[in-house]
Amino acid sequence: MSETTPLYKKVGRKYVPVVAQWYEDSGKDQMRAGTFRMVYACKDGCRRYEYDVTPATTAMVAAMLVARVAMEDKLRDMGRMHPIGTITPYTKKQRAAIERFKAEMGGMYPSHWTERSAYEISEAAIKAVLEFRP
Q: pTM value?
């Protein structure tokens, strides 16, 4: 059994939290002096973070965070599968063929295919705006 880092240590008569070693070593949420982080509470219990925001770009980045959340919600909604036009119910034979196709193809698509998430698409859209030079 390996030894673990304690979460609390006793100091006097009280127990105080101990910062875990992985947090100190990783530098994940440690910011350099002079940098800024923007926090956007897009929904109750949900936060989005944007790092390395400067005072000059704050308004634009804030607007993009709001737009990103709206884009992702809309992209998720629009990306859902839906029937085209009027649908007549499938016959037993057609349903069996669909199930065979899904089983043979690993779902609806070949296993080596993938699709981009709403976040990845909105990230690419915002990157395109930021990198646009007329």
A: 0.46
- Dihedral (CA of 57, 30, 69, 132) sign: positive
Instruction: Tell me how crowded residue 104 is: count the other CB atoms within 10 A of its CB.
Output: 8
- The three-class DSSP label of residue 9 is strand
Distance CA 59, CA 5 (A): 42
Cα 131 to Cα 129: distance, rounded to the nearest angstrom: 6
For residues 7 and 20, is the Cβ–Cβ distance under 8 A? yes
Instruction: Name the pLDDT band for 114 (thresholds 50, 70, 90).
Output: low
Least Cα distance to 129 among 26, 48, 60 occurs for 60
Buried b (16+ CB within 10 A) or exposed e, 66-102: eebbebbeebeeeeeeeeeeeeeeeeeeeeeeeeeee
Rounded Cα distance between 95 and 89, Å, is 9
Strands (E), the chain: 8-11, 14-17, 37-43, 46-51
Q: Which residue has tokens 């646009």?
A: 132
